[in-house]
Design brief:
Helix content: over 70%
Structural class: alpha+beta
Radius of gyration: 32 Å
Largest sheet: 4 strands, antiparallel
Strand order of the largest sheet: 4-5-3-6
Number of helices: 10
Length: 299
């Protein structure tokens, strides 16, 4: 049959090109690939968010320790250091950590009777700087050292920096995995399209004799691949969504400041929703290109 002088494939021709024996193989492939891609995407986006939150927490933050074996000297030195810190123009906030909070934090290691046993506990002061420049940290450290030789300044970026770099590396690795999954999906779809073309070579020759063009035949394969990819994308997205929601709930129950930063935002969720549609579009385009290229070599 023709429309406007141009031959078109009939429904019978479309059914003739269906791969009955392996009609759902592509659906399973797309489902598995998309499932793994969504997991990698969620992990990468969450890790990137956690890295950003950690960077914000580390920026311009210091902890000053006053280590003295005798409690009165420790408290006096802490008071001097606190007064110096609050007088520095580079310091936005300086807050002493209560000894009761320190005892509670040390209890898992020292036990509840650490104070009664006379074990020395340092005094701590949390400091927020106005800038996180190295020169600012150096000036504050020098002022603290002059106020008390027993004081030691620890920059959060020094001991949390490796954690931030590890999170950044994990986020980039997740992005690389997504690209590999996209490449592997493209290769699988193209191989499947070429295999289907070879399997239906005789049918395609008949269709050509009826007047169908290469583009019309390619459109038939596109529809088959689009249907299989859509079914696979729906299944893979559903399973991945349930698993991601379950893991997110478990992470939220941990009540960890670092892990809480891994929660996905609205933009991240939008990207995750767009991935299945991108997979289907990629499969359709790959199938069309593979079929057209193969038919030029066949005929």
């Amino acid at each position: 049959m023709t429309r406007g002088g141009k031959p078109r494939a009939t429904g019978a021709e479309a059914r003739a090109l269906d791969d009955v024996g392996g009609a759902h193989v592509m659906s399973w492939v797309i489902a598995i690939m998309l499932f793994l891609t969504l997991l990698a995407g969620a992990a990468g986006l969450g890790t990137a968010r956690a890295a950003g939150a950690l960077d914000r927490q580390m920026a311009g933050r210091l902890t000053v320790q006053i280590v003295e074996g005798e409690a009165q000297r420790r408290d006096a030195a802490a008071a001097r250091v606190l007064a110096v810190l609050r007088g520095l123009p580079d310091v936005a906030r300086a807050t002493p950590v209560p000894q009761a909070d320190l005892a509670r934090m040390l209890q898992p290691w020292l036990g509840a009777d650490a104070a009664a046993a006379g074990l020395p506990v340092p005094a701590l002061i949390d400091v927020d700087l106005k800038t996180d420049e190295a020169a600012t940290v150096a000036r504050v450290g020098a002022a603290v050292a002059r106020a008390s030789p027993a004081a030691r300044v620890d920059a959060h970026a020094t001991w949390l920096g490796p954690v931030g770099r590890l999170l950044d590396t994990a986020a980039w690795l997740a992005g690389a995995i997504i690209l590999l999954m996209l490449g592997a999906t493209t290769a699988v779809v193209m191989l499947a399209a070429r295999a289907g073309l070879e399997a239906h070579r005789a049918t395609i020759e008949v269709i050509h004799m009826l007047g169908a063009t290469d583009r019309q035949v390619a459109r038939l394969f596109q529809r088959r691949i689009a249907l299989d990819a859509g079914i696979g994308a729906a299944g893979g997205s559903l399973v991945a969504g349930v698993l991601i929601a379950f893991v997110a709930r478990q992470v939220g129950a941990l009540d960890s400041e670092l892990l809480s930063g891994m929660q996905l935002g609205a933009g991240d969720v939008a990207l995750m929703i767009a991935l299945p549609f991108a997979f289907v579009a990629l499969a359709v385009v790959a199938a069309r290109l593979a079929v057209l290229a193969q038919m030029r070599r066949m005929l």
